[in-house]
TrEMBL record:
It comes from Belliella baltica (strain DSM 15883 / CIP 108006 / LMG 21964 / BA134). GO terms for molecular function: histone deacetylase activity, NAD-dependent; NAD+ binding. The keyword Lyase does not apply. PROSITE patterns: SIRTUIN (PS50305). The keyword Mitochondrion does not apply. This is protein acetyllysine N-acetyltransferase. Its EC number is 2.3.1.286. Keywords: NAD, Transferase.
Length: 105
């Protein structure tokens, strides 16, 4: 029986792959007002701005690949019963081959 291993990941693990983080310097919130792109009020005020923001995020997510950290976590499954808990919705853990991913959206 394999020992259990739990990894907690967030935006930082995907930054190396080219996914912009929200709060770092030059992060997404520096170029966007959170209330304009991530609130019901922003949607009511200017749907075009909100759609452009999320379309850019989707385009970015489709253009990136897992980095070494994602790949190494997936390799650990050979030796451990690995669970990954993440807030990331970029699917890079899945693309790297990890199978037990708990995603808190």
């Amino acid at each position: 029986m394999k020992k259990k291993l739990v990894a907690l990941t967030g935006a930082g693990i995907s930054a190396e792959s080219g996914i912009a983080t929200f709060r770092d310097s030059n992060g997404l919130w520096e170029g966007h007002d959170v209330m304009e792109v991530a609130s019901p009020e922003g949607w009511k005020k200017n749907k075009k701005v909100v759609l452009e923001f999320y379309n850019q995020r989707r385009k970015q997510a489709l253009s990136v690949h897992p980095n070494l950290a994602h790949l190494e976590l997936a390799k650990l499954q050979e030796f451990f019963d690995v669970s990954i808990i993440t807030q990331n919705v970029d699917n890079l853990h899945e693309k790297a081959g990890s199978s037990n991913i708990i995603c808190k959206k």
